[in-house]
Amino acid sequence: MLATWLVELNYGTRVRRCTEVAAGAETNNFVMGSASRKFLSFDSTQVAARLRTWFGVAGKDIRDAELELAGMILPNLFGYHIVQLGNHVSEEFFATTRISHALLIANDTSQEHHPGIVGRYDALPLAGDSIDVLVVPHILEFAVEPHAVLREAERVLIGEGHIVIVGFNPWSLCGLWRKLARWRGGPPWSGHFLPASRIKDWLRLVGFEIEFLKKVSFRPPLRRGTISAKLGFVEQLGSHCWPFFGNVYVIVARKHIAAITPLKSSWQTRRQMIAGGVAEPTARARANLQNRQNRVQ
Hints:
This protein is an alpha/beta fold. The chain has helices at about 45-55, 60-75, 145-155, 175-180, 195-205, 225-230, 235-240, 285-295, and strands at about 1-10, 15-20, 80-85, 100-105, 115-120, 130-135, 155-170, 210-215, 250-255. It has a single domain, classed as Rossmann fold.
């Protein structure tokens, strides 16, 4: 069901029209944005469709590993609102969360995989400081400006809110496959695989603290499920012997808010003018006067 709603700000001088798809009534309480933001990102609708196909066949083991790790992370993150960007990997990231209100934002308008809200990832139609947890699975690899996506994440997350980022590791079998299959030009090989160290640096620049980092999935991305099943032992072997070379990484970061320390009032009495235009004596002058009085006595 397609609903159109208006948000009017500053007594009618600033009006913005947004398109919301199948959103609940609770969504309207915090979904807002800038009047100049545009919906429907560049040409990533086709990219999302091809990625969804890839994760259902050759990338099925990678998707399952991501969902398994997310199933251990998300139950420990609490709040009122959780948002996932993109529906090209899976819509099951919300399956294990304890947060009651979950919202999916994507730029795919297909009827089969309709999101809660259609919008751009670098210009989210959300109010600032309104989201508790933000899940970003394989968005940065295909974003024109990935740091812009992180800046938007920092804007919409509340203080001490969490962001969960899933990305391809360039130092892995998937990274090697990308080097060999890049000439095909199709996703995911057409994406820019960003190392986890760079993502961590970007997160720190926009005010996040890294809380968790793990790399999973060590099997090569194969289309034949029978061969991939026979390589199941590689998962346990890789997690112990070469954990750095996992196909994907999952980063959990917390938006840090600097605490404000109130300044205590000075206990020392300031010099003030008293009646008669005479300056009040300082503490040292009082002490000297008291000493002289004690000597006279």
